[in-house]
Amino acid sequence: MILLYRILAALILSLSLGLASPTHAQETSAVLDGGSMIVGYDGRACDASLEGAIRYNSTGGGDGGASDPCNPANSPSAGQICDDGSIYTGLSPDGNVEMYTTAADISTSIAWNNGNASGYVTTSQTSTTTGETNTTNLLTIDSDSGTGGTQPHQAAQVCADSAANGHSDWYLPAKDELNVLYTNYVAIGGFNAANYYWSSTEKDNSGAWEHRFSDNKTSGVAKSTLLNVRCVRKGYVAVAPPALEYCGQQSSAPTGCPTIGNVCSDGSVYAGLSPDGNVAMYTTPANGSTLPWNNGNASNGTVTNVTDINTGHANTDALTNGIIDSTGDSDSSAGLQPHQAAQYCKDLSAHGHTDWYLPARQELSVLCTNKVAIGGFVTGPPNYWASSEQAGTNARTYDFGGSCVLGSYTKNNNYRVRCVRKGSGSPAYNWINMGP
Predict the structure, then answer these.
(1) Whole-angstrom Cα distance, residue 114 to residue 297?
(2) Are 33 and 96 in the same domain?
């Protein structure tokens, strides 16, 4: 290891002498007894062709927060640009927690609901101080009673989907959090003060609170109105210092969770052993969306023949493979229609994994049996979907009440979804930190 560091240091020095300014090291490489070393940022994905390669990833650029002007220890001022590129906005109104925003609006024309001027839904997300909770809840609530399926709350969704400045915990600020942005909007910069900005705070069935910065005007406006959005997040996270990394394989099984209900190293929850081979099974700490099994159409049912009760991964793959009028078509009307519950799990990227699926009937039974230890389940209606079909119009569900009642309901019902994954898949290639 000492020899590697010496070679690495020499490579970095040779590069730095040729740089006009102390920016990130440029990429170069060296062959070392059949292996390779990469210095500087390397955009290539780690795969079998690079296995064993070592790189000095200088893209972090931080020093663990010691000199970051946004570190609370450095008494930041509103408008301070952080090492990660976000901007310090001030303290949150729900506990004086450091709050950050982006350098620009994430949208300049987006609805609070799905843009429909009818079919408004009362969400009960009326907190004026905790936008993070408002946003989390809005992601699972239907925004339009007049349209089939669960329609998104677009302003909240666009923040939740953001990965700006290397973070994934952005949310639509609540009314009082938005006021913090207003108070410091000149220092923060990038706002269009003449326009209104959405908060995540609902006013009534048809309206939500917004704020215009040019005259500090707040009012309730129809949820279908197209306004600006600036997302926020809370809590200081230091930019990691440059790291020495190697390309190798990591197990897909998380650690630190030997007992059912334990939170694992990756933030997922150990759910128990699968019924198709006693493989460790994991789930998320909270429910996903409330969705139909098919596309929400009550009149056209397609027999998918996806009836396996033990292997939800195969079921989910079949339901999302895009074969029209067969296992990928949820509606016998024209065109490919999605199986929304299965598609939600298939598309889920959570806790560092992308191999989530809608559990089969017996896998869902494992979750129900261990529901108290796992946590986060709702024991009242509606039920939870399994990926196991019962008939052309019906699929299997479980009521997570006291006795875990197995059910069979029409596929157009909006029921709850809790995705799972197994931890015994082939180890995945990744750049792995070798430590300081």
Answers:
(1) 19
(2) no
